[in-house]
């Protein structure tokens, strides 16, 4: 776990209600803007490695595109199988209009 926040883009590249993939320290991360608040979790499903940025966002629930597993984007917690392991989540910091992430 790093203490450093990594710049991943300006706030406007994260449209509300959409998923966007970014890279933090060589790892895929999926970012979501929900009601103006930014959330981020690891970007590969813990079940079979599906790219979660290709999934569907229903309010705060991210649905995996391959097998329909569900994660809470605000915490990374599994809310519906087949995944059994939670996703890593990221601390989000907004500086002006820049979005920075740090793995928890």
Provide tags for this entry.
single chain; 104 residues; mainly beta; Rieske Iron-sulfur Protein; 4-stranded antiparallel beta sheet; 3-stranded antiparallel beta sheet; globular
Q: What is the overall pLDDT average? A: 96
- Percent strand: over 45%
Q: According to CATH, what is the class?
A: Mainly Beta
Q: Which topology does CATH recognise?
A: Rieske Iron-sulfur Protein
- Our measurement of the CA-to-CA distance between the termini, rounded to an integer number of angstroms, reads 7 Å
Pick out the low-confidence regions. none
List the topology elements:
Elements: E1 6-10, E2 19-24, E3 27-34, E4 37-42, E5 56-58, E6 61-63, E7 70-72, E8 78-80, E9 90-95, E10 98-103
Antiparallel strand pairs: 1-10, 2-3, 3-4, 5-6, 6-7, 7-8, 9-10
Structure explained in plain terms:
The protein is mainly β and 104 residues long. It has one domain: Rieske Iron-sulfur Protein (3-layer Sandwich), CATH 2.102.10.10. Helix content is 0%, strand content 47%. It has no helices and 10 strands. A hairpin with a 6-residue loop joins strand 6 (61-63) and strand 7 (70-72). The protein is globular. The N and C termini lie close together (7 Å).
């Amino acid at each position: 776990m790093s203490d450093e926040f990594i710049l991943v883009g300006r706030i406007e590249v994260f449209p509300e209600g959409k998923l966007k993939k970014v890279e933090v320290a060589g790892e895929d991360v999926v970012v979501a803007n929900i009601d103006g608040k930014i959330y981020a979790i690891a970007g590969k499903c813990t079940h079979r490695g599906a790219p979660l940025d290709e999934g569907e966002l229903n309010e705060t629930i991210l649905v995996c595109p391959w097998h329909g597993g569900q994660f809470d984007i605000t915490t990374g917690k599994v809310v519906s199988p087949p995944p059994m392991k939670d996703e890593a989540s990221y601390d989000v910091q907004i500086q002006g209009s820049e979005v920075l992430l740090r793995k928890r």
